[in-house]
Every structure is written in structure tokens, then in C-alpha cells.
Amino acid sequence: MSAPVRVLVADDQALLRGSFRVLIETAPDLVTVGEAGTGAQAVELAARERPDVVLMDVRMPEMDGIEATRRICATPGAAQVLILTTFDLDEYVYAGLRAGASGFLLKNTPPADLLSAIRVVAAGEALLAPSVTRRLIAEFAGRPGPARPPARELDGVTDREREVLILIARGLSNAEIAAHLNLSAATVKTHVGHLLAKLAARDRAQLVIVAYETGLVRPAAR
Prior knowledge:
Number of domains: 2
Distance between the termini: 49 Å
Largest sheet: 5 strands, parallel
CATH superfamily of the largest domain: Response regulator
Order of helices and strands: EHEHEHEHEHHHHHH
CATH class of the largest domain: Alpha Beta
Structural class: alpha/beta
């Protein structure tokens, strides 16, 4: 049997941390390796425990979840980070994705969906399918951010890869992209792999950031 997915829970509310821990440990393929009540503790524990996934709250004392995510993801071989948000209140989702997070969860996510999300992210995928994710990315992507690094220019990306990148940014899965472009799933997977390599992106979430920051995709009109 494969080793269980190791999860670090970071939230400033002890009750929520405990609830997440109990839930995670009901799954035979998941295990918690620590709890952090501040962003600084999350960074410290991530370095020490080397989890596969970090559930990261945004609003925490000492250091917020965005900065903690940035520091964790800057480490080679770092954990995948899932940002926890309250949706209507949080305006930090896009900042979290830019910092290196692989996606986000709403705090009222059903328990089974949370466990599934942890598995998805641990496998190297990104949580970009739900329509709410698309809406949030579109809303926050147009906000000013830091300059793009040269490695994220699109000069080396082929026309077909640009088409795939646009559809990724719109939240389509590989299967949906294949159907849209009349390609095989294997071909789409190859294009995604080329995009990840050419754009120095960790996962699909980072490809979405590139698509918006380069202007290839524009936020939807509201």
C-alpha cells in the first residue's frame, strides 16, 4: 500500500483545526502531521514535517496565510497548498494562487469534498473546476500585481498550446479541452506538460495565473 497523504492544518481557530484533524484522520489514506495557529508556525512546521498538503487559512496572526504560502512554496519540493476562504469576505484568493497555492476551498465545503480535494492536490492537480473558482479567478485576476518574471513570457508557446492555455484559464478539464479542440486526451495532457515546462509553472493553477498576467485571457465583464 502507498504511504498516506501527509496533511498540515493551519488555522487560527483551535476548534476548526481540531475538526479538520478529526475529519482527515477518518480517511485511511490521509494523516495529519501537525496543526499551526499562525502563519509563522505553518512555515516552521512545513519545513520540519514536510507534509504533502497544507490547508492554509488566510487570516492568521503573526503572518497571514498568503505570506506563509509564498514562503512554503518557495522551497524546492514544497508541499501543495490549499487556501481556505470564506468567499464573500476574502479578497485574497488570487493573491494566494499567485503566491504558489494550488487552489482554494470554501470553509463550508462538505466533508467528503474536502477529503477529495486533498487527494486531488496531493496528486499534483489544481482545484480549478468549480464554477465559483472560475468566477473568483476572473474577478481577482484583473487586479494589479507584481511584474511577471521573464520565464513566464509566452514567446516560446505554440499556437495550439495557447489555445489549450486559454481553456485551462477558463476552468476546463483535460477531457473538456480535448472535446472542445477535437484532440485526444493524451494529446491534451502532452500540451499541458509542455506548458508547465515552458512557463516554469508548478501546476494548472499557476498556468491560470500566467494566462491572466500575460493578457492572454481577460477577466469577464461584470
